[in-house]
Design goal:
The complex is a heterodimer. Chain A is an alpha+beta fold. Chain A contains three helices and three strands; from the N terminus they run βββααα. Chain A has a three-stranded antiparallel sheet. Chain A is globular. The two termini of chain A are about 25 Å apart. In chain B, the strands form two sheets. Chain B has a nine-stranded mixed sheet with strand order 7-6-5-4-3-2-1-8-9. In chain B, strands 10-11 form a two-stranded antiparallel sheet. The longest helix of chain B is centred in the middle third of the chain and has 17 residues. In chain B, helix 1 packs parallel to helix 2 and helix 2 runs parallel beside helix 3. Helix content of chain B is about 35%, strand content about 15%. The chains are: A alpha+beta, B alpha/beta. The interface between A and B is medium-sized, with 17 and 24 residues.
Chain lengths: ~90, ~375
């Protein structure tokens, strides 16, 4: 299988990013200086797989198994790309 | 935010003004005209408790600021307390006093990022504006922060004397390895208002600097993030001050006064609460100072019926007070304000190059206005 454009990387949290659960808002957060990202819906599950060892395809496969029927293959790669552009992932 | 969020919404950020003492004395200092003396500052234990309470309230970011926060010898312990409360820490510093040993100690305590002030890209001009020879120390501080692997932000307050150097300032930020460059047009409260005649730029300067930032944004695909804090005297649009009154963040001053914004101490009838007297959650939820201008119910026209009222929140209360004498009026920065003419006239007039800059007196921490 050939990797589609933009999927040949192994997403990991950018070095300065802190991920934490926020008990006050019952939300998963990503923190950078001056910025807060609130992980809503399945975003927390997606980001949870971004540990630098899995490629984008591995993440898609893993999620497809856990969420059968969800549009994982079409939605997850651009979502990861967006998080990379915004500086949360590298 | 989820539907489980209690009302009012919880604050995200805490500006912790640990001390008003500072080796620099910039003419636009954001500290109030009446500076808190060191003997009135909160103790280590009190700041530790502030951080614990802030974390429980929902604060996830704290900006450890001043004055110069490095003058607090217990800064490391305050960082530790914030970290223990789950709060992401950013040191906001002039860079003076940030040597390798201090940075190591702070990083070990859990410090996450550093924001460094620069007054100009030219060392002599930077030292002149800051009123203290400090540029070389800033450059060294930037190197140490980068070497430690911490994110580095540069903060530049823009005014008549440095707006023409925005290209140089961005180049400086790139060469120092900054991740973020905040170009913050000077705001006219406190010291800035006192020195407005000397600081006010011309419309042409603003336009030139804005164009420069746009050019750099086009060129910098991967470089530092450029943040342009709008010059509200010139745009005819009120800024969404603090993201709304008592909506997003709070400030604790050196003596424990808790404010919706760092400039709000200037409002005469605010009666701000103090952390020594009340728990932080009560202050946020119920104190008169925080509920006074929260939401939109307090507004009069033109704000009350304005479609932008939930976007700019009527602008800045401190500016409304400073220019109209009534903090409840529409911010005159807005072209819809009946008093907008005041601002337009000032912006058209520009600076008075002969106006003296009145500064905090170095070495003194109270009632320190003086001519230099």
């Amino acid at each position: 299988m050939t990797a589609a454009p933009g999927t040949d990387w192994r997403p990991a949290l950018a070095p300065a990013v802190v991920r934490r659960h926020d008990p006050v808002r019952d939300a998963d957060l990503l923190l950078l200086p001056e910025r807060v990202g609130v992980l809503t819906g399945s975003a927390a599950a997606v980001v949870g797989l971004c540990d630098g060892t899995r490629g984008v395809d591995d993440i898609v496969d893993d999620l497809a198994e856990r969420f059968p029927g969800a549009p994982v293959a079409t939605d997850v790669p651009p979502f990861l790309e967006r998080l990379r552009k915004e500086g949360w992932l590298r | 935010m989820t539907s489980a969020t209690p009302s009012p919404a919880r604050p995200w950020a805490l500006l912790a003004e640990l001390t008003h003492a500072c080796p620099l004395h910039c003419g636009y200092c954001s500290n109030p005209l009446e500076l808190t003396r060191r003997s009135r500052e909160l103790t280590t234990e009190q700041w530790t408790d502030v951080m614990r309470q802030a974390g429980e309230l929902g604060v996830v970011h704290t900006h450890l600021s001043g004055g110069e926060p490095l003058l607090r010898r217990d800064l490391e312990r305050i960082v530790t307390a914030a970290e223990a409360a789950g709060i992401y820490t950013q040191l906001v510093t002039s860079g003076v006093g940030l040597d390798q040993a201090r940075l190591d100690a702070l990083a070990s305590a859990g410090l996450r990022s550093v924001q460094l002030s620069v007054q100009h890209a030219d060392p002599r001009a930077s030292d002149r504006i800051g009123g203290h020879r400090s540029f070389a120390e800033k450059e060294r501080a930037a190197q140490l922060v980068r070497a430690a692997g911490l994110p580095l932000g540069l903060n530049v307050v823009l005014h008549r004397e440095n707006l023409d150097a925005v290209d140089d300032l961005i180049e400086l930020g790139i060469s120092w390895g900054a991740d973020r460059i905040e170009l913050a047009n000077v705001q006219f409260y406190g010291w800035g208002l006192l020195n407005r005649a000397a600081l006010l730029p011309t419309r042409a300067q603003i336009a030139g600097a804005r164009d420069a930032v746009e050019r750099w944004r086009d060129r910098l695909a991967t470089g530092p993030e450029l943040v342009w804090v709008v010059p509200d005297y010139f745009d005819g649009v009120a800024k969404p001050c603090m993201g709304g009154w008592g909506a997003v963040s709070l400030t604790v001053t050196p003596d424990g006064t808790v404010l919706p914004c760092p400039a709000a101490a200037a409002l005469p009838d605010l009666d701000p609460p103090n952390i020594r007297d009340h728990p932080l959650h009560w202050i946020w939820d119920h104190s008169k100072a925080f509920t006074r201008y929260r939401g939109t119910d307090w507004m009069a026209d033109p704000c009350r019926s304005c479609s932008r009222r939930d976007e700019d929140f009527g602008g800045c209360r401190c500016q409304a007070y400073a220019l109209t004498g009534d903090a409840g009026r529409t911010d005159p920065a807005c072209r819809l304000s009946p008093e907008h003419g005041v601002i337009r006239a000032l912006a058209d007039e520009g600076a008075d190059a002969t106006a003296p800059v009145r500064r905090r007196v170095p070495g003194r921490s109270e009632g320190a206005a003086a001519r230099v």
